[in-house]
Design brief:
Structural class: alpha+beta
Helix content: 10-25%
Largest sheet: 8 strands, antiparallel
Radius of gyration: 28 Å
Shape: globular
Bound molecules: ligand MIG
Strand order of the largest sheet: 2-3-4-5-20-17-16-13
Distance between the termini: 105 Å
Length: 787
């Protein structure tokens, strides 16, 4: 008994000493302003614990950065500098910074940041008690949560369109088998749009550490907050009063996409893996034989020699150049995969060079970090270093020389078996947790800039799985390993739309679902949604059934073909849509929250997957098991694309949704340029551009854009651009004079009028009566059409 008691006493002692040994990480809250100074274009406010700096980037973008230590001010995302000086009023208790669009009122004691519209309406404010604070190196900003405040954004995040009541972590992660609620996934976009009281604002937290967002996920909805494990409280506040303008401002700051190669917008056929050149060519020929329009074939990891990046398997892919020539003859482009892990093997070029030049990640003592991925034991290149990026970029000659023009960057979270890269692993001077979220983006940058150099004036296509804000400058993204079930298809639509808010326009999901096997119905339905997905790729995992269009029975193949044909008909519209992304950052797939921000129904779980595909088309994704579905049509006039049936918006309608006809609607007054079916983007076609206009009560216009689809000449003015406008009041359609020196590949323009009263058979073109059918595309002067 005595012994027993002693043991108890010892145990208790050990337990309590542990308790006391535990260190509190006290919260340190940003305190009172002690000095206010302006240096060049920065306003600097010092408190006892930290220094806050304020810049005006544009009248609608103000940056605030609060740091405890003098940190290096660099960004992977931001490509712009402040455009102007900063003026401020130092009042007794506050400092006011005013622009034509925004007013920032800084409370001095304690230091809190409150944003208003220029005319004084509250947009977003610090929580007055907690504001910005620290626990050790962790920095957090608590904000006031407005009663009806909604939040959208954060890019590739699962969950609902309206993120109110949810919390998220940014920590780029390989997420196979993720479900509709899994978090985090592969990509980090710490940018959201907040909305309340009819107002809008945006906030970009440019911090690459592991970060956190909480949109009132706590009881009683007390605050919303965001923060990171390290780094500064460094954010850009956007004050534009429309979601579209906020996206335009955000992509002004973080950059916009260049024009993608036209071929990348066609149908893409992928598989993990086509195991040999012969198998790949068989599939390509089969697509042609069955007249399924297609542009792209893929090589997944098995084309390599033992998964060594920049090599080809000599047995199964013995003649890369021959393969590429055969594909080219069939008008196919090839995309090959590359992973970041470099196999540890003496005699392998990239390994030897990387070791010799010290290009790989290390432990703090300089020893190289070893991980295990597909090739076995590997080292990881330090893509944060420009010299390493240049070296990586130049290595692509092994792929560009035989003629590859597309480069798929996988596993760049980076993924390793067991997912646990020690926190002390260093990439140059950075520890892994500081740069993990930008590693994939830096690999994509290296890939894009390197292949662009190797390919001369041709546009490479780059696709990456991991990403950070700004990735749109270099690459397309896809949403990783999705699964073959309906809820995942709907999630895919939300992910694509959410990525659009954060600047990523060229986005895809694996059509059909990567893991698992879709039912034929799901395959058909998902393919029909793929038509309206910016990047249209059919892809599947090695242990699943093949997914090519002819494997679902003749009837289903016919539906799949017809849908893919629809994609090709829409290409003139889609390409013009990407031109819009290039110019303004507005994505091709737009959540309804962009244009119908104030309509409550669009945020309901039932309608949140709907989106606009470009300016004029509304798409309602429908599960494969449902043959009719409730659709919310926002305020305005709408037509069903397939039937021409007209609807008054601001209402819920029940839409027929057979597998042959996904509910797709066109907005009244929409202008949609289309073409006849072609088998691929290189096929010449019949030379007719079909400008479809749907009747409507409002005047509308559309910028039609065309260029050679492959080179960078458009940056020197070699494009064909004209504004098409429709004015129902004047009964007039106008094509502006052509801007740019490119000669359109179309020789005729056919006007196709939908929903117009009576028969519009003849029109007056520049005053002369002529048939509705045709005006000349190569008539570069203004064309005025009276109907
Ligand atoms: O460990 O390259 O998400 O698209 O097919 C899996 C094989 C590695 C993951 C990618 C998937 C690709 C697969 N990859």
């Amino acid at each position: 008994m005595k012994r027993y008691c002693l043991l108890l006493v010892i145990l208790l002692a050990v337990y309590s000493s542990n308790l006391f040994a535990q260190q509190h990480m006290d919260v340190q809250i940003l305190g009172n302003a002690e000095s206010v100074n302006k240096k060049d274009n920065v306003l600097i406010i010092k408190t006892k614990e930290a220094e806050a700096r304020i810049w005006i980037y544009t009248p609608s973008i103000i940056r605030v950065s609060i740091s405890k230590i003098q940190s290096i001010d660099t960004s992977f995302a931001v490509v712009k500098e402040p455009q102007g000086d900063i003026q401020y009023k130092d009042n007794d208790k506050t400092i006011e910074v005013t622009t034509s669009a925004l007013k920032l009122v800084v409370n001095k004691s304690p230091l809190r940041f409150n944003f208003y519209t220029a005319d004084g309406k509250a947009l977003s404010q610090d929580d007055q008690s907690f504001g910005t604070n620290w626990q050790g190196s962790r920095v957090v900003n608590y904000r006031k949560l407005y009663k009806d405040e909604r939040f959208i954004g954060l890019g590739e995040k699962t969950g609902n369109l309206d993120r109110r009541g949810s919390s998220y972590v940014n920590w780029n992660t390989d997420a196979p088998d993720h479900g509709p609620k899994t978090d985090p996934l592969y990509e980090t976009f710490p940018f959201f749009v907040g909305m309340h009281d009819g107002l809008t604002y945006g906030l970009f937290f440019d911090n690459t550490h592991k970060s956190y967002f909480d949109f009132g996920a706590s009881t009683d909805n007390q605050t919303s907050w965001f923060g990171a494990d390290g780094g500064d409280m460094n954010y850009y506040f956007f004050g534009a009063q429309s979601v579209a303008q906020i996206i335009e401002d955000y992509t002004w700051l973080t950059g916009r996409m260049e024009m993608p190669p036209l071929w990348s917008l066609g149908y893409q056929q992928c598989r993990w893996s086509y195991m040999s050149a012969d198998e790949l060519l068989d599939v390509a020929s089969h697509l042609r034989k069955d007249k399924i329009p297609a542009d792209v074939m893929y090589c997944d990891i098995d084309y390599m020699d033992h998964y060594k990046i920049f090599t080809w398997n000599k047995t199964t892919f013995p003649d890369p150049k021959g393969l590429l020539t055969k594909l080219k003859d069939m008008n196919f482009n090839l995309v090959t995969i590359v992973d970041p892990g470099i196999k540890i093997e003496e005699g392998y070029k990239q390994y030897d060079e990387g070791v010799a030049k010290n290009y790989f990640a290390t432990y703090p003592n300089g020893e190289k970090y070893v991980a295990e991925v597909w090739p076995g034991r590997v080292h990881f290149p330090d893509f944060i270093d420009k010299e390493v990026r240049d070296w990586w970029g130049a290595s692509f000659s092994a792929l560009t020389e035989p003629g590859v023009e597309g480069f798929w960057n996988d596993m760049n979270e980076p993924a390793v078996w067991n997912q646990n890269i020690p926190y002390m692993v260093k990439f140059g001077k950075f520890y892994m947790p500081e740069i993990r979220n930008v590693y994939g983006m830096q690999m994509a940058e290296a890939t894009y800039l390197g292949t662009k150099k190797l390919m001369g004036n041709k546009r490479p296509f780059v696709l990456t799985r991991a990403a950070y804000s700004g990735t749109q400058r270099f690459s397309a993204v896809w949403t990783g390993d999705n699964s073959a079930y309906d809820a995942h298809m709907l999630l895919g639509a939300r992910l694509v739309n959410s990525l659009g808010i954060t600047g990523m326009s060229l986005v895809g999901v694996d059509i059909g679902g990567f893991t698992g096997n879709p039912t034929p119905e799901l395959m058909v339905r998902w393919n029909s949604l793929g038509v309206y997905t910016p990047m249209f790729r059919n892809h599947s995992a090695h242990d699943t059934k093949h997914r090519e269009p002819w494997l679902w029975g003749k009837e289903n193949e016919d539906i799949i073909r017809k849908d893919i044909e629809q994609r090709y008909k829409l290409l003139p519209y889609i390409y013009s849509g990407f031109y819009q992304s290039h110019l303004t950052g507005l994505p091709l797939c737009r959540t309804l929250a962009i244009s119908y921000t104030q309509e409550d129904s669009i945020y309901s779980e039932h309608f949140q997957n709907q989106f606009m595909f470009g300016d004029g088309i509304l798409v309602a994704p429908v599960e494969s098991t449902r043959l009719s579905e409730d659709v919310y049509l926002p305020t305005g006039e709408w037509y069903r694309l397939s039937t021409g049936e007209k609807y008054e918006g601001g209402k819920i309608i029940n839409a027929a949704a057979p597998l042959t006809d996904l509910p797709v609607f066109v907005k009244g007054s929409a202008i949609i340029p289309m073409q006849s079916v072609v088998q691929n983007t290189k096929e010449k076609g019949d030379g007719i551009l079909k400008i479809n206009i749907w009747n409507g009560s409002k005047a509308n216009s559309f910028v039609y854009y065309e260029d050679d689809g492959t080179s960078y000449d458009y940056q020197q003015g070699t494009y064909y651009k004209r504004t098409i406008s429709f004015d129902p009041g004047k009964k007039e359609i106008n094509l502006s004079a052509v801007d740019g020196s490119f000669i359109s590949k179309y020789t005729q323009i056919e006007l196709v009028l939908h929903g117009f009263d009576g028969f519009v058979k003849t029109v007056k073109v520049n005053g002369k009566a002529t048939s509705l059918a045709s005006v000349f595309a190569n008539d570069n002067k203004e064309i005025n059409i009276k109907y």
